[in-house]
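Example 9 (inverse folding). The structure is encoded as follows.
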């Protein structure tokens, strides 16, 4: 089937003309109905749109709802077709911008870390600066349209901070002629590089496969942050207890020789112990020398350290299993929502980028969107994968429903047989009664046909 955006205009004589852009989409049914999306949909959403006519930018804003409780909005087939239609243009724009970002910033910036030629370094940094200026123009357009809402998106903050950080880095490199590379510049380069990776992830979301992975991993990380923070706090707590008890540092290969802080050394040792490294509890050298004259105190202190060591390993084993359990649970919980989250991500892309397109290209206003959708197209929940636990529950519920239906059918069948048997017995009783009455009538007729003493028949005149 085809559907598209139609613009209805009036000429001077009052005749209506419509201009339609059609897009081929798949369908599974033959029965269609026409859906009109215009001012009618304004009553569905919370936003108040005053204008009678709107363009692609306003339609994109209409199709984006951020609230989690309204995520089912993106399970509607009509909304998905509108989002897909607009994303066909936005996706092409973002794909080209991604290529410009890779070729104009990421590759030259990585190349600048591997070469020493001053002319080549100058060219790489200049190309990176021009690319940053190109992209900051788009961010300025979005900032003007969204105002303070702009900073609620972490990718927008990353984009702006990357521009500021690279301008500082560029100025320092030009003034020093790429000669000095102090600690601050190393940290600044690392910061810009990490932001480049984050921006690359941003553009990768336009592709379905990468978008699924990034959205799923981001949401799982958010769900696991409380447990991860609790485990990190426990790690610090056990390390501090070990330090108070004067536990020795086991570092036979001098891997921690550059770490001067005893607390950080103990923290890394505790972490290695949670990962399965064999760290034998021992006393620190200074404490062991001090307690040489008191073997009993040395034994007691070593016993306490060993007890804490056993408690620590048991503790982190339990919470390691708990971490994996929550990880799988979060995946099971999020998987059924991923398609709706994907469409919401597309809707946000549409909203942000039509604000940019509206600056460079004049958009035609239209009053309604008319297209055909499948009339009987419904999401059958029992056929959707909702995670292993819910799938098992659905299977058992379906089996129980089948057994319940079978019991109901058997009960109805037995009741029908009982009713038929009762009707048959009633019919037999009726037949017996009718036969008895008929027999009596025949007997009476036979008696009337016998002759009396005079030779006449009874009742005959």
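The amino acid assigned to each position is listed next.
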């Amino acid at each position: 089937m085809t559907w598209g955006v139609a613009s209805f205009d009036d000429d001077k004589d009052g005749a209506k003309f419509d201009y339609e852009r059609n897009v081929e989409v798949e369908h599974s049914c033959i029965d269609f109905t026409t859906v009109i999306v215009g001012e009618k949909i304004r009553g569905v959403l919370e936003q108040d749109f005053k204008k009678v006519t709107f363009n692609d930018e306003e339609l994109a804003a209409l199709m984006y709802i951020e609230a989690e409780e309204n995520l089912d909005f993106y399970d509607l087939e009509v909304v998905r077709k509108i989002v897909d239609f607009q994303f066909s243009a936005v996706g092409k724009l973002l794909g080209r911008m991604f290529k410009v970002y890779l070729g104009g910033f990421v590759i030259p910036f990585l190349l600048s870390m591997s070469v020493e030629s001053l002319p080549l370094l100058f060219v790489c940094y200049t190309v990176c600066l021009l690319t940053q200026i190109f992209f900051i123009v788009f961010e300025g357009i979005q900032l003007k349209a969204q105002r303070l809402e702009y900073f609620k998106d972490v990718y927008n903050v990353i984009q702006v901070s990357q521009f500021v950080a690279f301008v500082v880095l560029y100025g320092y490199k030009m003034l020093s002629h790429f000669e000095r590379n102090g600690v601050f510049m190393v940290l600044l380069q690392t910061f810009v590089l990490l932001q480049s990776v984050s921006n690359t992830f941003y553009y990768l979301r336009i592709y379905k496969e990468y978008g699924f992975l990034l959205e799923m991993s981001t949401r799982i990380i958010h769900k696991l942050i409380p447990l991860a923070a609790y485990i990190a706090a426990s790690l610090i707590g056990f390390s501090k207890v070990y330090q108070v008890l004067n536990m020795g540092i086991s570092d036979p290969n001098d891997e921690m020789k550059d770490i001067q802080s005893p607390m950080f050394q103990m923290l890394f040792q505790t972490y290695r112990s949670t990962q399965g490294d064999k760290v034998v509890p021992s006393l620190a050298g200074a404490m062991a020398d001090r307690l040489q004259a008191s073997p009993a105190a040395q034994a007691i202190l070593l016993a306490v350290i060993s007890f804490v060591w056993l408690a620590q390993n048991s503790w982190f084993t339990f919470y390691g299993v708990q971490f994996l359990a929550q990880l799988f649970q979060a995946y099971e919980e999020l998987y059924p929502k991923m398609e709706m989250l994907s469409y919401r991500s597309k809707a946000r892309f549409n909203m942000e980028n039509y604000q940019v397109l509206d600056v460079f290209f004049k958009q035609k206003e239209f009053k309604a969107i008319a297209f055909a959708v499948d009339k009987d197209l419904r999401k059958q929940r029992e056929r959707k994968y909702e995670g292993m636990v819910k799938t098992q529950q659905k299977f058992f519920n379906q089996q129980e429903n089948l057994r319940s239906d079978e019991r109901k059918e058997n009960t109805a069948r037995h009741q029908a047989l009982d009713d038929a048997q009762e009707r048959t017995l009633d019919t037999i009783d009726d037949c017996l009664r009718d036969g008895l009455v008929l027999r009596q009538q025949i007997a009476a007729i036979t008696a009337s046909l016998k002759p009396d003493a005079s030779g006449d028949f009874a009742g005959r005149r």
